[in-house]
Specification:
219 residues, alpha/beta, six-stranded mixed beta sheet, 7 helices
């Protein structure tokens, strides 16, 4: 599903260039459940953003679902993202001026689904994540844990082929985190490819493969 070849990311500094990722060559198969681990500053979140086509400032080759992402224009990358990728952000990235229910509807608006089906999927997500009572609230009215649940629900609601998750349980109680990991395992069993970034050995144990980064290099 994913093939990276010599992918690199850097930015200019007064002293020259600072490297974030170096010569990343990596294959992730369809149906994999991969965990990216490493110390802070290793490039984990940057790599996840590149996989999600949220960061286009890099060099090298990236193939996703047989599409050459490195050759796609910005609009093509956006369309590929909307069609196939769900993303759980570390900082949630919920839309502040939309209610919980409206935030959940956003990914469905990119799919060719009838209105009744979209409403049914939102209702199912609200029930599954036990946030029915929060559906008319805005993100600013939610706790960090509640925002995290909404962010996970939004990422999975459209059943993406690729789910990317950056510290998906960081603001949750242990029991809630275990429930999210159980949901990820079930989605993975149903065919969703998952790549998560985490510092948690507990979360990593739910996946099938661990990739370690250090100072931007695969180790």
């Amino acid at each position: 599903m994913i093939r990276l070849k010599d992918l690199e990311k850097s930015y200019k500094t007064g002293a020259g260039r600072t490297w974030v990722l170096r010569r990343i060559t990596l294959d992730i198969g369809e149906g994999d459940f991969v965990t990216i681990m490493g110390p802070s500053g290793a490039g984990k979140s940057t790599l996840l953003a590149i996989l999600g086509m949220l960061d286009g400032d890099w060099t090298g080759e990236y193939q996703l679902l047989d599409q050459a992402v490195h050759q796609l224009p910005g609009k093509g990358r956006v369309e590929l993202n909307k069609k196939h990728v769900g993303f759980v952000f570390q900082q949630f990235h919920l839309l502040d001026d939309l209610t919980v229910q409206e935030n959940l509807e956003v990914p469905l608006s990119y799919r060719d689904l009838p209105g009744a089906q979209r409403k049914a999927l939102v209702a199912d997500a609200l029930d599954r994540f036990q946030i029915v009572g929060k559906k008319d609230l805005f993100p600013s009215q939610l706790s960090g844990g509640q925002q995290q649940l909404v962010a996970v629900a939004r990422a999975v609601i459209a059943k993406p082929k690729l789910l990317l998750a950056d510290e998906p349980t960081g603001n949750l109680h242990t029991s809630q985190g275990d429930e999210i990991m159980a949901l990820f395992r079930e989605l993975n069993r149903q065919g969703t490819t998952i790549v998560q970034v985490t510092h948690s050995e507990r979360n990593a144990a739910h996946g099938s493969r661990i990739i370690n980064l250090k100072d931007g290099w695969l180790v």
